[in-house]
Amino acid sequence: MGMTKRSGNAIKESFGEKLFTVLNYAFFCILGIITLFPFINVVAKSFSSEAAVVSGMVTVFPIDFQVGTYQMVLGNTQFLNSFKITILVTLIGTFASLLMTVLAAYPLSKPHLKFRKSLLLIYVFTMLFNGGIIPTYLVMRELEMINTMWALFVPGLINVFYMLVVKNFFEALPEGLEESAKLDGASNTRVLFSIILPLSKPVLATVGLFYAVLLWNSYFNAMIYITSPELKTLQLYLKELIASTQEVLTTAGQIDLNRDLNQAPEAVRAASIVTATLPILLVYPFLQKHFVKGALVGSVKG
């Protein structure tokens, strides 16, 4: 009787665990669908006809499939120019931010650094307080950075939170590696670039991805510091496009509305959003193997 009772309890526990697993999978599948639905809806609208989009018939699948909106978007000179500027700013800004982040995090990861706690306090203070928009603008103007590409990434060159993540990762590395290298005559710079950084690929890939996403999606700096159309970023272009979707159909006489067969302003807006989202979205699979490890290891002290 006792064995049967224990066996029955075991079966009940096993059934409960299976039920819990099934419910978990169902919950996260539903959550994933809810999360993806807005993006899928935008993609469907970008491939749908004017009548279908305007009437609100488009949900998940395109109706009256067409690609004219993408031809219009990719043929728009302002879109292409903004796309190039954003790619350039993202590449240069990510490299510069990673470099400055590493150069700040490495010395701060050393317990023997003088005034280490005071320096960390100053960095953390900047996470909570800043100079404000007007003083920052005046500084940028005095530095003659207004209407230059530098204004798009220099103000946020170092993200303190990411710097602390990299610092914690450096602290978790074995100290013996540096000590042995210094016994062989290696300088601090040689140790950093030849030993520490090759071992830090996971956290560098993770933080680099974070920086790239921030720069790609940023429009505030461009809105504040840029007035020249040649330096307008993609996100600022999209912001203006969303505010006035009709503009893309009449800009610079590039599109003849009499020849435009099936392109609604909302569909053009959707196509622009999809085209702007895909490049940064395609980066994730290549960094995925480093992403989880870098985020977990770098966010806690070893």
In a few lines, what is going on in this structure?
The chain is mainly alpha-helical and 302 residues long. The protein has helices at residues 2-46, 50-54, 68-74, 77-108, 116-128, 133-142, 160-172, 175-183, 188-199, 201-217, 220-225, 234-243, 247-250, 265-298.
Structure report:
- With 302 residues, the chain is mostly helical.
- The chain has two domains: 45 residues; 226 residues, Orthogonal Bundle (MetI-like fold), CATH 1.10.3720.10.
- The longest helix is centred in the first third of the chain and has 45 residues.
- The chain is globular and about 75 Å long.
- The N terminus and C terminus are likely disordered.
Give the helix/strand class.
mainly alpha
Task: Tell me about the largest β-sheet.
Answer: none
Number of domains in the coordinates? 2
Shape estimate? globular
Following the backbone from N to C, one meets helices and strands in this order, namely HHHHHHHHHHHHHH
Task: Tell me the name of the CATH homologous superfamily of the largest domain.
Answer: MetI-like
Q: In the CATH scheme, what's the topology name of the largest domain?
A: MetI-like fold
CATH class of the largest domain: Mainly Alpha
C-alpha Rg, in Å?
26 Å
- Total beta strands: 0
Rounded to the nearest angstrom, the distance between the terminal CA atoms is: 51 Å
Number of helices: 14
Percent of residues in helices? over 70%
Could you tell me the strand content as a percent range?
under 5%
Weakly predicted, low-confidence segments: 1-11, 252-262, 298-302
Based on the coordinates given, report the CATH architecture of the largest domain: Orthogonal Bundle
- Mean pLDDT level: 81
